[in-house]
Amino acid sequence: MADEPLVLGIETSCDETGVGVVRGTTLLADAVASSVDEHARFGGVVPEVASRAHLEAMIPTIDRALEEAGVSARDLDGIAVTAGPGLAGALLVGVSAAKAYAYALGKPLYGVNHLASHICVDQLEHGALPEPTMALLVSGGHSSLLLSSDITSDVRPMGATIDDAAGEAFDKIARVLNLGFPGGPVIDRYAREGDPEAIAFPRGLTGPRDPAYDFSFSGLKTAVARWIEAKRAAGEEVPVRDVAASFQEAVVDVLTRKAVRACRDEGVDHLMIGGGVAANSRLRALAQERCEAAGIRLRVPRPKLCTDNGAMVAALGAEMVARGRAASSWDLSADSSLPVTDPHVPGHSHDHVHEVSKGNLYS
Ligand code: KG4
Ligand code: ZN
Fold this sequence. Notes:
This protein is 43% helix and 18% strand. It is of the alpha/beta class. A 6-stranded mixed beta sheet has the order 3-2-1-4-5-11, sandwiched between helices. A 5-stranded mixed beta sheet has the order 8-7-6-9-10, sandwiched between helices. Bound molecules: 5'-O-[(R)-(carboxyoxy)(hydroxy)phosphoryl]adenosine and zinc ion (ZN).
């Protein structure tokens, strides 16, 4: 519908320069430039390399997204940008670009939360999020269970990892197995040909006295690394596919078990899974199976919308506009540890939009 807000979203929290354009809950463009290859030889994202790559990719990626969407920048109702959490320098490139475009075009600026964006993106795939929704957010930096009754204003943490994030565990085990970086997609691939029951790896924090909704993957990581070391020390070949499948099963077993339990305990009948690890094929399949058995409706965006992208930022920005949330002020800054409970960074009390409308440098 033409009266739904048209928003451009910029994402630079890690190594993907993502620019998306959405109208309401309709995806119009999703342009991504990744610097992942530049980090591969270091086995992880190098912040300075990421910042420089964002700077180089920013304007071409914005141009590409607008062209793909078939809209003019002048038609936008707002510009959204990831304000945090993420790598400080990388975030700063996105925030600066968003401010420059918003100011020059005379559009309101919305600094939004990367984590809430990972949840909101599902609106582009499955329509408006049910309220409340339980969200299992699993990425390279975060693993949390969140309960949200309104993604623009109310995100309540139920539990989180007490050590490594799920994606981090995938990346570390892939490194031990010499499979390269990022580890998630390659472990997913190897695991398809392996036996998930070959090795009984530990399920963290699943004892009767453990916190019901918190996660721990550091013990699992150590157990897998030790198992591999022992094989190597004995001069035996490491069965990479079985290790990948058994490790992956341990992760997704715990994630899905706790997510379903949280839904049941809270009487919530919709589970959403988001973040890079939600691209995992076994996580998607097991979650589907367990949700069906528990009478819970599962929503998982297509894999491309699970990993970092600009469309998710635009989706949350459009929701902010639709619900009349306050725009951010011009002194918006990147906050590398923005709490998950803050879906956006609102402005000060003065009328931001009015102030902007005076200075449309493009017209
Ligand atoms: O959300 P994301 O793109 O970036 C962060 O915000 O962290 O998530 C990246 C993480 C990486 O750890 C990557 O290994 C993992 O998501 N990942 C996967 C898969 N695809 C990406 N993990 C498991 N299976 C996958 N298919
Ligand atoms: Zn992410």
